[in-house]
Write the structure tokens for this entry.
Amino acid sequence: MWLVLLLVSTATHAREPVIELEGLTQQSLVEQVEFRPAAPDVPLEEVRTDKGFRPLHRADINQGISGQAYWLRTRLVNTHNKPVSWILVHKTSYLDHIELYTRDATASKFERAHLSDRVPFHERPIDYRTLAFPGQTGGDSYTDIYLKVYYDKPDSVSLQFTLYSPEAFTQAVQYENLWFGAYYGALAVMLFLALIIGTLLRRPSVFIYAALLLATGWKWTLLNGFGYQYLWPDSIYGHNEGFHIAFLLFALCATQFSKSFLNTRVHFPLGHRLLQVIQFVALAGIAVRLMGAYEPALHIAFITLAVIAFLLPVIGAHAWYSGLRYARWYFLAWLLYCVSLLLTLASAYLSIVPNGMYALILLQVGSLLEAVFLTVALTERLLNLETERRKALALANQDPLTGLGNRRLLQSEYEGFIESGSAHRKPMYLIMIDLDYFKQINDQYGHDAGDQVLREVARLLRAHCRDTDVCIRYGGEEFALLVRTDGVQSARAIAERIREEFARTPTLYEGHSIAHTLSCGVTPVQRHGQALSVNEMMKHADQALYEGKAAGRNCTVIYRDSLSNPSLQTIQ
């Protein structure tokens, strides 16, 4: 019996958690500690005598939402003859309290140290974004450690601790700062671009996207602990009470951006109503939290995030399937983000996902990819809007029968020509064209034949125009060309080529060969070195054209202006 008891005692002693400090760099406390839950008011003396401790495995790190305290214990053993310093770090920034009880081999009592984010940041022993303890174990000695982890109010509990040597801790902080600097730098660049583009284009969806980036940044400064470390180190309320408000504001911005970006009111009425319901719930959660209620706001925040994690990818997929091409980037953005969001919620809320805070790291990477893909989606959407605007403008400036421009196009092109200063570099001339006896063609062959003749004129004009010329149907049987050329004789030559080809090429329509002619009036668009107004330019061209008709038609007339005696020159 004594032999059996000795073997059992030896086996039990062998299972006690021990961490060797010799050669320490970075050591996770998973599998190296034991843990047990307890009521928050249970003292150390009672916990030490209790037999409820069990090994901490990866599946035990995330305990979900809990109001209990959790105790962890281990022994740090230093087999070297010199003291070894160490730093014990908790991995979350939102833990309310850690009580550390330590006792060296030569001590009879445990020493207690208390860290909390319920005090100003500068009271922490280490200037670090999460709660961290410095300690030392003497040479050829050991340190027994008991850790008590708890919240003032039920929240998501993580038991993930890491033990560092001071050198390894400094290096780990440097690596973290590189990663976080890249993350927040990328967010800042995208926010800056969104604000500039939104200001220039005055698109509401761009400003809403900027608000989404701001909400994302605020949420992660809280979760990473940088907000409390650098931005509001004395605001205990801002750090501890801001998490759920930040989550709900993110949900508000995400749903509002989705409504604006996908125009859900028009394309997806049911999805639009669901998004409105989510926004109402989020606003209610913010109001509840501001009134002092904690647990209801916590559950509302987690449930709201879970719902949008399912809903937004579905809406994006439906939009893409319905023909909104730019929605594919929206869908990909939210798919990546929401998968990682669901994993994080499952680990934090339900404790069914192991591996501690790795889900949160995955979520932060997903949030960066989401922001990048949403930037791409927004850019494509703006390009589509610009393309649609140009198409609409082209249709508004186009004659539907001939496909040429109309008066509005002539007006805008000429004004642009004047504003650009091009009028002072190269001469421009207006050629007005009128079909001779067009009414007789309509009366003899019908209006469809007349329309075919007009289309033939349009084809002829396009054939004789350059890319820099403006070619329009002015109205009825009148056309106009705004051409840049070297001089009036060059402009006359263009008009003559059009006139001569039209006269010798009859229009074929339903077996009929329709002979026709036209007359041209040419005028410079400048007078005494100053550009004419559109009305003056058209008036001069009409005068030249009227003179051509009076002279027998089928001719080109140049408008000539002098200070003393304006006259018209007819060129047959």
The radius of gyration is 40 Å. The chain has 17 helices and 23 strands.
